[in-house]
Amino acid sequence: MTTAGRPENSSTTAAAARPAATATHPENSSTTAAAARPEGASAAAGRPGGAAPAATPTHPRGPATDHPDPVPTWAEDDIPKPTVPVALTALGALALTVAAIVHISPAAAPGFTSWPWLALLALAPAAAAAGLASRRPGLANGLVLGLAALAPGRLVLDLQFAVNGPLAIRPELYFPDRFIGGSAVGAGFWLLVAGHLLTGAAGVAAARAGRSYEEPERRRWRLLAPLLAVTASVGLLTAPVGSDNGFLLARAAFEGPWPALGGYLLLAAALPLAAALALAAPSERTGRGMLLGLAAGAAAVAVPPVLAGLLRDDLHVTWGPVLALAATALVGGLAFTRLSEKPQDTERDVTIPGVFWWRLTTGLLGLATAVAALVGTFAPQVAVSALNPGATTPSTAAAESPARWFLLVAALLVAVVAALTLVPGTAGKARPVLGVTWAGIVLAGTAVLNTALTATQAGNLAGFGGADVGATPVFTYDLGAGAAWTFAALVLAALTALAAVGTGVVEREDAGERTEAGKDVLTPVVAGAVLAVAGFGLPVFNVPGYVAPGLWSNLDTPSWGLWTTVVVVVGAAALAVRSRPKPAAALLTGAALLAALHAAELPLVGGGLGDASPATGFWLTLAAAAALLVAAGLSAAGGRRGA
């Protein structure tokens, strides 16, 4: 008998052949995987007895030679050095630095010595990108992308200097010391514009450089970034500083002029959008860099007003910029954690952060939303004060919104669903419902806020008696505590929505089944969505002399709530068709609850306005709720049959 036929020799031959094959391709990633495989043929030669089976060892994914282990998604970036994006970023930072030294306008100088701080905020990210370009090109590329994401908003914000500089709340660049009706712009303004344009161009170049790379498999920690970014956006929309100076009228973004408002809105939208895009960053280091760039860009907007409040006696630090800084600091902190997760033997082994923590966060945010809405229901929306010329103390009164009971019902609905989300046995069914019903807070909250906004827009009103003292009292209308709590409920509702979306992503990853909802639910789902659009677009009740806000006519503050709810209902219906049966049933149930809540405006709001009668929108929304409930029942029945 020859030795050629022995198993040992065939195993040895196979072991000798495998390194030779991989040695011819050192760049192939399977080399590392084959070397790390403990059950290779060469390892078998060292077992007692020298015997080894001729077949390839068993592997969870099949034969090891046919399916090599995947390369970790956090491997070294294989992208070229981002020379052009980094160069454009450096030029933009230099322009912004010089703009801080050269005055924006000849009519007003900076309110404090701000240029060293502004130079640091502009040059530090550019220097970091330049230093990382050769060693960590992916990180540098992402840093540029993060900075560029906020460049359009910052550009529109700075256009306020050209439109009407005295209305700008930018004490680090423009602080008038006298009343100015208008002002011309100087060289500093054009340098600001050039700096933002160069930063935006750098982002375009960076996006082109990294567009061909694949998305890492799982990045659960990064799902926290959009949630934090929305929190930062809320801070940017508030008053940047408090002012005791009559030449600087500090106010929130929605109370300011349009160029500044447009800039703040772009910034508020870009922060969560760019954070969400980090979920699909081309590489691990690009994703980290994007988060760092967002944090640096947001700091350039939020730090100057904080410094102004600290360095000037007539200005005060407000909570908005501090909140924005804290939230974006946490976003930047995510860049120092592992954003993607190392593949194990099976994907089910990856559970960080687990679905329990996501459901806990979603449920707690839902409860916080409900509590804020409840306080907004019972606290006064408008504070009214009157002072006669001969009086020593003003007389005060409070006004409430006729839609407050509508907000109360929406708050109770969210509270119940959020509480069920915190219970392990019902969390899986309640979380999709909460991911839809949060819009009810927006629907009712905007209706409540309309009362406060309408009253305060009237300004000071005179009249109402006062003849006995020979003078007319002056009435002032200010936002009450209820308006503040209602606005907080709207913000928390948006955070609840984002947390619910993140929880849904994690739940879908953990689900073993991928079965979609049955096709028999398509007809009632489409019918419910169409009826909902028509019902939300038409008035629910008729009251003599009252014109209800709508989707496409009589646009007012409640119209934002109507649009939000319509988009959520239609989106939930569309998502339900592509979801598994049980989550689909929960989504459709939430959409039906929103339609029913809208129909409830007839007794909850119309009852407080007078002799209200049902209108066309009432019947359409009831029909939409019925169709969506039928679809939910069919989907749930399909899920039971599939089980």
Keyword list:
643 residues, mainly alpha, four-stranded antiparallel sheet, two-stranded antiparallel ribbon, 8 strands, disordered N terminus
Structure overview:
The chain is mainly α. The protein has 23 helices and 8 strands. It has helices at 7-23, 30-36, 41-44, 83-101, 115-132, 137-149, 151-158, 160-164, 187-209, 224-236, 258-277, 284-311, 319-334, 355-378, 404-421, 424-437, 439-457, 481-510, 522-537, 557-577, 581-599, 601-609, 616-642; strands at 241-243, 315-317, 382-387, 395-399, 461-462, 474-479, 541-542, 613-614. The strands form 3 sheets. A 4-stranded antiparallel beta sheet has the order 4-3-6-5. A two-stranded antiparallel ribbon has the order 1-2. A two-stranded antiparallel ribbon has the order 7-8. A hairpin with a 7-residue loop joins strand 3 and strand 4. Helix 14 packs across helix 16 and helix 17 (439-457) runs antiparallel to helix 20 (557-577). It is globular, with a radius of gyration of 31 Å. Residues 1-77, 342-352 and 460-471 have low confidence and may be disordered.
The percent range for helix content is 55-70%
What gyration radius follows from the Cα positions, in whole Å? 31 Å
Number of strands: 8
Strand order of the largest sheet: 4-3-6-5
The number of distinct helices, counting runs of at least 4 residues, comes to: 23
For the termini, the CA-CA separation is: 59 Å
Question: What are the segments in which pLDDT stays under 50 over at least 5 consecutive residues?
Answer: 1-77, 342-352, 460-471
In round numbers, the mean pLDDT is 80
Instruction: Give a short account of the largest sheet.
Output: 4 strands, antiparallel
